[in-house]
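Input structure tokens:
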């Protein structure tokens, strides 16, 4: 079998793409944007509520241990951040592919 080397393709995953996706994922924390995705909107609302319960538990008036509530709240916030980041990365990748196709068409 011949060793065929395919032409090297330039990766569309660049540092700029990741930076833009991270900034966009932070912008998506806005409830007005989050309401378009009902499941993640509910997760965001519950994150706010558990954060309030954690603050209450830190003050000594909570029903559960503050450490446990804080960990749950932290995991919920990370869930939202990573979901937003994945969505923003996919959008950025799509835009990069569209730009690459436009450049190829002009050549």
């Amino acid at each position: 079998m011949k060793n065929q080397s395919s032409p090297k393709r330039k990766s569309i995953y660049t540092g700029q793409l990741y930076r833009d996706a991270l900034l966009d994922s932070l912008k998506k924390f806005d409830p007005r944007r989050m309401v378009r995705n009902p499941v993640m909107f509910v997760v965001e609302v519950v994150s706010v509520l558990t954060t309030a319960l954690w603050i209450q538990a830190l003050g000594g008036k909570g029903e559960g241990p503050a450490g446990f509530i804080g960990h749950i709240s932290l995991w919920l916030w990370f869930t939202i951040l990573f979901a937003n980041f994945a969505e923003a990365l996919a959008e950025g990748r799509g835009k990069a592919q569209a730009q690459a196709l436009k450049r190829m068409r002009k050549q």
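The chain has four helices and no strands. Residues 38-106 form one domain.
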